[in-house]
Specification:
single chain, two-stranded antiparallel sheet, 2 strands, 74% helix
């Protein structure tokens, strides 16, 4: 891989990480399409490099989200129990499946995430107080810098969230995207969490899932350092910026932006997969 392509991989990773951190999608959901469609990276190597970069994105982005109080650590660890199982399974399958099938699958997932987020774009979480029953001990609060309001919430339908987490982990393993594309919308739509809390929590979770995924890709020989290293460096630049922007931008505007980007990338991936 030449110097120009290396720089472009780093730049694409920085842009992807910025976007991914803003809604807790992990960045991988943007990196795989950008690497394969526009930079000529082989799909298997793109997925492997992305799996590594997602971990770096999570580490950097989580630090900012933790400082803002957006991360529900107890919930993240609980949901990761099932997500890791799915991630290892998906990564093993990914080493044995055709690249064009992966592109089509990722395209479908991108469009699903775009539509689900747009349809539920208003922050409709249920405001709670300390007297609300909390059987899972998951109630949390944070101060939203954009509105200067104290937001108190409690995740709902936790068992369903864990079940969906298995599917999120499976996608993480198959596509190297960290599973944030499912985890974020699940916490937002199913568990009725505020958008910024679901984004912060998902950012932490994708790193945990990504470690399991990256190990499987490493053992299968699908991690090329010429792609992975500039991707990780780009992620370090972009993820902190994305986490900072999350605290400053109105949540509904974020969702509209992501709807447009995810829909475009999803259609592009499906078209490329069918063409292959």
């Amino acid at each position: 891989m030449g110097t120009e392509q290396t720089l472009m991989v780093g730049l694409a990773a920085a842009v992807a990480a910025t976007l991914g951190s803003m809604l807790g999608l992990g960045g991988g959901v943007f990196m795989v399409p950008l690497f394969t469609l526009y930079l000529g990276v082989e799909p298997a190597l793109a997925v492997g490099a992305t799996a590594v970069a997602v971990v770096a994105n999570s580490v950097v982005g989580s630090r900012k989200h933790l400082g803002n109080g957006f991360v529900n650590v107890r919930l993240a660890l609980l949901l990761e129990i099932t997500a890791i199982i799915g991630a290892v399974t998906g990564a093993v399958i990914a080493t044995r499946i055709r690249a064009d099938y992966l592109k089509i699958l990722l395209g479908i997932v991108l469009i699903y995430a775009a539509v689900s987020m747009f349809m539920n774009r208003r922050d409709q979480h249920r405001q709670v107080d300390d007297s609300t029953p909390d059987p899972w001990d998951l109630m949390a609060r944070y101060t939203d810098p954009a509105s200067n309001q104290i937001i108190t919430y409690m995740p709902e339908k936790v068992p369903l969230g864990m079940a969906v987490g298995t599917f999120a982990g499976l996608l993480s393993g198959l596509l190297g995207i960290g599973g944030g594309i499912v985890k974020g919308p699940t916490m937002d739509v199913v568990m009725k969490m505020p958008l910024k809390a679901s984004a912060g929590t998902a950012t932490m979770m994708v790193g945990i899932t990504g470690v399991a995924t990256a190990l499987v890709f490493y053992r299968s020989g699908n991690i090329d350092l010429q792609v992975a290293v500039p991707a990780v460096l780009g992620v370090f630049l972009g993820s902190s910026l994305g986490a900072h922007l999350t605290s400053r931008i109105n949540a509904s505007k974020l969702v509209v932006l992501f709807f447009a980007i995810l829909t475009f990338l999803g259609i592009s991936m499906i078209w490329s997969g069918i063409g292959a």
